[in-house]
Structures are given as C-alpha cells and as structure tokens.
Amino acid sequence: MIDNIVIFSRSLPMHGLGGMEVAAWDLAVGLTRLGYRVVILTTSIPGEPEIIERDGVLIEALPVASGRYSREWWKSSRSRFKDRYMTSASCVVSVSSAALGILSLRNRIPDVPFLFQAHGTSWGEIVSKWRSLKPKSIATSIKNFLWLPRDVLAYRQFDYVVAVGANVQKDLLKLCDYKLLKPEKIRLISNGIDTELFSPSLESRRCVRQGLGVDDESLIILSANRLHSQKGTHHGLEVFYRVRKHRPDSLYIIAGDGVESKNLKKQVMRLGLEKSVIFLGRVERQELSRYLSAADQFLFLTERTEGLPLTILESLACGVPVFVSSHVTLFDSPFVNFVDFKDYEEITSRLINAANVTRERRLAVLPREYSLENAVRSYESLIREKASGQV
Description:
CATH class of the largest domain: Alpha Beta
Largest sheet: 8 strands, mixed
CATH superfamily of the largest domain: Glycogen Phosphorylase B
Order of helices and strands: EHEEEHEEHHEHEHEHEHEHEHEEHH
Radius of gyration: 21 Å
Oligomer: single chain
Helix content: 40-55%
Mean pLDDT: 91
Number of helices: 12
C-alpha cells in the first residue's frame, strides 16, 4: 500500500472555486477513500491555520503568498517536502507546475512515481489569447511563448503527464510529433465528478425555483465559471438579451466571481436585464448542484482552449443540456450542443428550440467514464504501474 501520496497544488477550493482546484481536491479525497494517506502542500489559505485535516486529507498551507507561484513557494515547498515527506512519500502528484521546486530531489528518490496533472499547456494558452483578437491578451501571450521550453523540460522529468481532457492530450501529443516528449509518458485520465453530489433532484428544482419566484415552466439558463473575459460570460449576456425577446419569462443565473464582475454588471444595466439576471457570486458545490437541478440549460461560451470543464460534466450529471463553444473537445452526446460563441443569433435560435422540446431528465446523460470513482481508480492504476516497474 502507498505510504504517503503527496500532492502539490498552488490552490484548492478553499482558495477559490475553479476547475483545477476542484479536480485536485476530489482526487485527494478519492484516494483517501481508497485507503491511502494523502498530504497536500499548498499556499496559505486566508483565515485558516497552516495545518488542516479535512475529509481525511492532511493539508499543509505554507506561509507564502496565497494562490500563486512565487520564489517563496518554490523554496518553502521544497524544504517542507525534503524535511517531512521525502523518505515516506511513495508518489508525488504535481497539479500543473506546483511541484517543480522539488524536481532537483528526484535523483534521491528514483523509485517514487512523479505525476504531472496537466490542465492546459502554454501552447493552449497562446491559441486562446490569439483567438480572442484582443490586443492585451495577444501581448500577454509572449509570456506563454517564453514558458514553452520550460514546460517541455518539466514534462520530461515526470514519469507521466496526465491530461485531464482530450484537448490537453492533443496539445501534448504535438510535442511528441517534434520529438520533444515521449508519447508513452502521456496518459489521458479525464476529469471525473461525484455523481452522488451531482444528480437530478426534483426537490432542489422545486425549492430553488420557489425561492426565485418562478414556476416550473419558466426558462432558467445557468453559467458557472470564473468571471474572466476569456470565459465568455459577456457573450452569454448578449445571447440572453436575445432570448428574452422570445421568452420574457426567462432568467439567467451566473455563478462565480472574478475580475470581470463589475464590467458584466454594467453590461446587464446597458442591456436592461437587471430584473432577469442573477449574480450568485462564489457558490459551494452543494449549492451549485441545487441550482443545476433547477436549470433548463447550461451556457459556456468560452474563448479559451479548455481542458475538460468540470461544470459541463456536472451539468450533464444533473440532466441539463449544455451549449458550449465548438472549439472545446468533448464526447458526442445529444445533450451537448456545440456553437460558435460569436454567433449570438444562431445560439439564441438553438436555445429557444431546445427549450420548446421536452427532455427526460436522467442521470445517464453523463457517461460513466467521467465519474470521480473511475478517475480515481485510473490514477491508482497509474501509480501501481510505475511502482511495479512496468514502464
């Protein structure tokens, strides 16, 4: 049995509710449920002590800048791992680049599997920023170009680079085409969600709609993402403005927070949608599950090259049809509608048509391979594969 699985992550859901944070935490809890001892080294968490135990997972929140990489993070995470866990660790998982500070210690623990969980790539960031056609985003892509060689060097030092979705896997395989990375290092383990937490609930639908003052026939569209310009919530508002002309009884609920919050609220005022758009701010996952059960459609018009957005999987698990940007790579499903995020009229037409069709709400909308249980078992198999010397 694995002694300590040590996970490095710059942030967790306690820092901010993003897809990367949720995936890291769910993996930790899932491995704990299988009987492993899991330690997470992360940055400081405002309002929390340095040592926390939650759901069986030991969290060490180092006294460094919260939620971001820094010189102090690389130094402190290396020191903490070396002093407390290097001799007992049987596996290291780096959520994105969080564990790069300890790579210099690898030659001292050659039998310990090192896994890099890739939620995106520098190349994917470059494509996303250029797709936006925004001068500021294009200018910041220079930093991503500079990070490309560093990423490749880092990938080579891990036993496996785990892509959380098909888009990420595709970007990583491009490196193999140029002989920069061995294809056997790349594994696809798609993000998985807790299908006990996220499942259709008629009771939640009734209670949430009652609290909003709408009946079961009203159309509710939901978006849940970080409020950043590249996440496309402003596109969602433009679409909803057009939807309201056809369905005056509709509501648009936006969950999440971020730097674009003020601009989005100004956009709501400009479009005259004050009475029909609700900003929830940051919501806990239990609450998000309730709102998904109450929703009729999920809208995600991202401009980014996404890995595998958890909110899409959560929506499908709750039986909610999804409208998502066509460049996001997903599985085929009659409940997944791919759209051009800039074509507001076409999206509006398809939303209205879908709203007029009665759909059976069922858990089977989400393929089983995207369950949290399946994802955690896949990580366990990968760890055991390396430990048994099969690579």
